[in-house]
Amino acid sequence: MFGVKIYVSGDHIFPHESAVLVMNHRTRVDWNFLWAAMYQACMPHVACHKLKFVLKDPIRHIPGAGWVMQMNGFLYITRRWEEDQGRLSRTLDYLIALDSRTQLLIFPEGTDLTKNSKEKSDKYALQHDLPRYTYTLHPKTTGFAYLVQHLQRASYLDAVYDLTIAYPDFIPQSEIDLVRGRLPDEVHFHIKRIPTAEIPTHESTLRKWLENKWSDKEGILKQFYEQKTFSSAEIWPMAKMLPLRAAFGFWSILTGMMVLLLIISPIFQLWALIHAAFFVGLSIFNTGFSQLEMGWYSRWKSYPFQAKRS
């Protein structure tokens, strides 16, 4: 789409698995291209994946987009572990209770690669006698280890997918680049599936395991930027564009209709105002729609007639 070619290599993603996905975070707009990569990675079951992101908490406050992500059950973290642990635990328990086999994507680096974030990563490396990275940041391992262990204890983890994203030409750094039409010609993804039997179960070994994966990823990316391709990786055939264009057309028309109604229809304006007030209220007095949904579910399950059924 828009002249950007998405190349995917490595293992396919099985959309019916309960999995944790980890990926390097090269720029703020990686996720825009990830959706297209998931379209190819899950072939032929393109409509079946249930990808949910683990994101910074402020993103849920973004009008429109942040509210939609709340309703889709994205996970938000505050970087305060006492609070984040509770949020993650409630969300994972909820997904397990619903038997919702979801793919949870976490960016272990915690932020995208910039001059400032690299300086912090280099400082961390110096303090802990670690090598300085050029193409990645040293990963934060707490959240990843908790996600994996929680799912392992429930026997609900099928695999971990290690995704590597790389831009062989232009690297867009922000949404402003996209708005201005400054897009890369190509974006490459390489996927490695690690089955649950090969994943450590203890927290310390899980942390070290992820650190080793990131060390390998640094080497893979170094080689990529020298060769402009992932070495010895067969690139999958490009996905058919017709379904993507149809989806883009549908959502463009729908968005245009919503904007038009917002301008000309007092009833729609009132409807939009009520919903905006609802989500603003959630932002102030609650931790998001998904957390509210989980609370409703817990209370519903605690009713006497539900207890008798179970």
UniProtKB/TrEMBL annotation:
<dbReference type="Pfam" id="PF01553">
    <property type="entry name" value="Acyltransferase"/>
</dbReference>
<dbReference type="InterPro" id="IPR002123">
    <property type="entry name" value="Plipid/glycerol_acylTrfase"/>
</dbReference>
<keyword id="KW-0812">Transmembrane</keyword>
<keyword id="KW-1133">Transmembrane helix</keyword>
<dbReference type="Pfam" id="PF16076">
    <property type="entry name" value="Acyltransf_C"/>
</dbReference>
<dbReference type="GO" id="GO:0016746">
    <property type="term" value="F:acyltransferase activity"/>
</dbReference>
<feature type="transmembrane region" description="Helical">
    <location>
        <begin position="270"/>
        <end position="289"/>
    </location>
</feature>
<keyword id="KW-0808">Transferase</keyword>
<dbReference type="GO" id="GO:0036149">
    <property type="term" value="P:phosphatidylinositol acyl-chain remodeling"/>
</dbReference>
<protein>
    <submittedName>
        <fullName>Lysocardiolipin acyltransferase 1-like isoform X2</fullName>
    </submittedName>
</protein>
<comment type="similarity">
    <text>Belongs to the 1-acyl-sn-glycerol-3-phosphate acyltransferase family.</text>
</comment>
<keyword id="KW-0012">Acyltransferase</keyword>
<keyword id="KW-0472">Membrane</keyword>
<dbReference type="GO" id="GO:0005783">
    <property type="term" value="C:endoplasmic reticulum"/>
</dbReference>
<feature type="domain" description="Phospholipid/glycerol acyltransferase">
    <location>
        <begin position="19"/>
        <end position="137"/>
    </location>
</feature>
<dbReference type="InterPro" id="IPR032098">
    <property type="entry name" value="Acyltransf_C"/>
</dbReference>
<feature type="transmembrane region" description="Helical">
    <location>
        <begin position="246"/>
        <end position="264"/>
    </location>
</feature>
